[in-house]
Design a protein that fits this description.
Layout lengths: L1 H18 L8 E9 L2 E15 L2 E12 L1 H4 L5 E9 L5 E10 L2 E10 L4 E8 L4 E8 L7 H9 L8 E8 L2 E17 L2 E10 L9 E10 L6 E8 L2 E11 L7
Antiparallel strand pairs: 1-2, 1-14, 2-3, 3-4, 4-5, 5-6, 6-7, 7-8, 9-10, 10-11, 11-12, 12-13, 13-14
């Protein structure tokens, strides 16, 4: 009987650990209004949904950014980024990035083999209408650009201290520092909440084709929900403010 009770306790602990393993809920969807100057020019979403990849349970992480029709004539954006992130190891199987920003286009894919510590990097050649493939070595714990953000949400963040991740994207392995700058209150859809201001020191393009630093405001709690982002991109600066959210544990005011 003791062994059965011990087994049940261990099983319950494992179940609880699995449930609280990530700081976000299945189906979390965050919608941001992106402003260029004073103009509300675009909308961007971030989603995390349960899915499978080659029969294995994953989080399918995705971001979509799209300028409003009136702004398309000025600078059209249609960006989509996806990551298939293993639910157990929290490492990506596949990363896909499609960017269309003005006349700039980019389509890049990484297929990761963490056991072999390698990745197949696929870069679409628009002139030849085909992928150019390269196999390269990677660290065993590498993330992609999108999964890295969700990995940061799992970390304990302390003001004045940096955290580090290995990120493999755009055919490069990057040891990336994430600086935790400060704590400040921010007016959000959840009311006025304490936030941590972080800065990932990225080299290369992220969700947008960046040309400068990016700052992100996360709720200062176990969920670390992004409520504000600021960055410089091709045509100037943008600010993205969280305008709606679903499947989140915080109450919207």
């Amino acid at each position: 009987m003791i062994n059965i009770r011990l087994f049940l306790v261990l099983a319950l602990c494992m179940l609880i650990t699995h449930v609280i393993a990530v700081p976000f809920m299945d189906g979390e969807k965050l919608t941001f209004d992106a402003k260029y100057g004073i103009i509300k020019a675009a909308e961007a979403t971030m989603e995390a949904n349960t899915s499978t990849y080659q029969g294995k349970p994953v989080w399918r992480l995705s971001t979509n950014a799209k300028t409003h029709s009136f702004f398309d004539k000025v600078f059209k954006v249609r960006d989509k980024v996806e990551s298939w992130w293993d639910k157990e190891t929290h490492l990506p199987y596949k990363f896909s990035k499609n960017l269309q920003e003005g006349n700039y286009k980019q389509h890049r894919v990484h297929i990761y083999d963490h056991d072999a510590k390698s990745t197949t990097y696929q870069r679409w050649d628009f002139k030849k209408n085909r992928f150019d493939n390269t196999v390269m070595d990677i660290p065993g714990d590498t993330q992609d650009i999108l999964s890295a953000f969700y990995a940061v949400r799992e970390m304990q963040l302390v003001v004045g201290k940096s955290v580090y991740l290995n990120i493999t994207a755009d055919g490069r392995v990057m040891r990336t520092e994430v600086v935790v700058h400060r704590r400040e209150k921010e007016n959000t859809i959840f009311g006025k909440v304490d936030c941590l201001v972080i800065e990932p020191k990225l080299r290369g393009d992220a969700v947008f084709k960046q040309s400068g630093r990016i700052l992100i405001w996360l709720t200062d709690d176990e969920y670390k929900i992004p409520v504000r982002m600021e960055s410089k991109i091709t045509i100037g600066s943008f600010v993205a403010i969280l305008s709606s959210a679903s499947q989140v544990p915080l109450k919207i005011k």
